[in-house]
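Reviewer 2 asked us to include a model.

Predict the structure of this chain.
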Amino acid sequence: MSQLISHTPTWVFVVFFTLLVLGYVQTKERNIKVRTVFILPIAMIIFSFFGVYSVFGVTTLTMGLWIIGLIITFILGVKLAYPKLVLFSKPDNKLTVPGSWAPLFL
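Predicted model (C-alpha cells):
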C-alpha cells in the first residue's frame, strides 16, 4: 500500500483535495452568476466531443450517435435534475442555489 501512495504523482493528490474543497463549498447556500452555471456543462460537452473524436474520428455514424446522446442527456437533465429550489434574482442576474452534500459524495 505504501508503494502505491509513494508512486502516485503529486498532481493526483492536488486534484483530489481540490475536488474535496469544491464539494464542501457546494454544501452551503450560495449566490452565483447565471453564466457561471454554464461553464461546467460546456466544458464537459467539449471534452466528450474530443474523446469521441480521438477514439473514433469524425464519421457520420459517430457524430450522429454523439449528437443523439447529447440530445437524450439534455432532455433527461431538464426532466429529472432541474433543481426546483433555485431562485433567480433578476436585478442582480444571480441564482441562489441551496447547498447539497451530493456533489461532495459524488
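Residues 1 and 36 are 40 Å apart (CA to CA). The chain has a mean pLDDT of 90. We have added this to the supplementary material.
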